[in-house]
Amino acid sequence: MPPVCFRLIAPAFVGLAAVLLGGAAPVGDPLRDQLISQARSYSPAHLAFDRTTAITRASPLGKRTTTLVERWDGRVWSLVSVNGRAPTRDQVRDTGKAAEKIPVPGYYRLAELLSAAGDRRTESDGRVLLTIPRLPSGTVSTGSDDISAHLTGEATIMLNDGQPWVQSLRVTAREPFKLGMLIKVTHFEQTFQYRLDTNGQPRLASQNADSLGQVFGQTGGESSLAVYAYR
Length: 231
Hints:
single chain, globular
């Protein structure tokens, strides 16, 4: 079957109002509001990093892994290498087109996702967990299908010098769902890990994604791991 490929993306920054599909946190939740304000303050224009992504696609014909190294300089993306080699002209073109459709990853994207946060609870170790019952419309797309309504999320909140920050975000499927007319997605999970830099500012450190689907009784899927190195 064709690979089941998912990317966590957001709609355009200008001219698009967020649509929240229920499960919003109580109005005036101070923790949620503080985290949203914090995330909004981190613009991708102020970042420069390399992203190394290993993508493994599996089908009845076997597995294939591709490793990409990409660079964001605060303005534009560039493709550094594909499987350890200099990219071809076609690879540069195709990667550039894909990048135009996908927002730059980063901590700032939590502002939109946490706008739909609902219940929160405190664990015995002091961690606070914020639940997103249903992700905001437009935040998760396959490129042709918006699957946000099928997903739920949970953010882990930690404190640094008394200030809260998101240590991780886990996104999973609420139920099996369809892509188009043919693909049934049976498993979907993404995990985002954040870390504090030397200035105490949170940065996206890595993201891991796994998905499985079926077409005509055949199972296939994709797993990927992206690691960020800041410059």
